[in-house]
Hints:
The protein is α/β, with parallel strands linked by helices. It folds into three domains: about 10-100, no CATH class; about 105-170, Alpha-Beta Plaits; about 175-315, 3-Layer(aba) Sandwich (Rossmann fold), CATH 3.40.50. The chain contains 14 helices and eight strands. It has helices at about 10-15, 30-35, 35-40, 45-55, 60-65, 65-70, 85-100, 120-125, 160-165, 175-180, 205-215, 230-240, 260-280, 300-315; strands at about 110, 130-140, 140-150, 170, 195-200, 220-225, 245-250, 285-290. The strands form three sheets. A four-stranded parallel sheet has the order 6-5-7-8, with helices on both faces. Strands 1-4 form a two-stranded antiparallel sheet. Strand 2 (about 130-140) and strand 3 form a beta hairpin. The protein starts with 8 loop residues before the first helix and ends with a helix. The mean pLDDT is about 90.
Amino acid sequence: MESEKVLTFADQVRAIPGGEHFDVCYSCGTCVSKCMIQQKLEPEYNPRRLLRMVNMDMREEAFDSPTTWLCSACDLCYPACPQEIHISGVIGAVKQLAVEAGYKSPLETVVVDESLCSGCGICVMTCPYEAPRLIEKEVNGVMDRFSEVDEEKCMGCGMCVAACPIGAIARPGVSNAEVASQIKIKKHKGLPTLAVFVCDWSLRVDEDLDILESYPDNVRVIHIPCSGRIDPQMALMGLRSGIDGVMVCGCAPDECHFKRGNYVSTCKISLLDRMLGQMDLADGRVRFVQIGTQDRGRIRHEVDAMLSSLQEEVA
């Protein structure tokens, strides 16, 4: 009787939807040049090196590689790939095999407080990665519904944290309380105060971050993992505390690191702006700015323009 063929690591990756075209890659490195993870988060991030590990049957090394866990499937690399490979699909296939082998994601993920969760499912609809799901279990003899988060799918973007209407979801470092504690700016006579919520991925070069940090302390910079993390309540909290203006800086359309965070934030800020208009509050006190890959240096013009506009209001 002929023995059953043992599948190689490469065979297993090919068998998963998204991983079938990995060996078309000829290691040109274009995907690496388009990706910000290597620059901003992890120097060892390298998709072509991961694909090489798959070809060489280096299973444990691939599962341990940060590349397996850090790809957010933004697909910014896909239009540039000369072989038209969805690199995120290949990496996703390797990640699936890693999870099946018992490996755990190293990312900071969100946590649900079941004592607060109402099981409304808003987080399920918001998440780009299908990490939350609704489950039912018995509590004090009664069946109840809660949100449960798959830690191996969660990328820590924080969109669900902002979407939850009762604050039942949190992520270390960007919980509602931690973000709110930063919305405090000392008033300066004759100078407008501005809170700038900046997505960690929207400013592509260190020089742009240096520009933001160079402003005097009437401008408060608050770093968030994604513009989709912004809750309109945060902007209202800032305005209510006496801050003259709030700017949210996110990625340009089709360039969001977390797939659709900029779309979510656009909708929320637009609704907030409309609400402020109905309340006859000053126009332009809340602004959403989308910074594209080629927009180096633009953040200075945006902040200066808003400060100038606010200056007219406080003068």
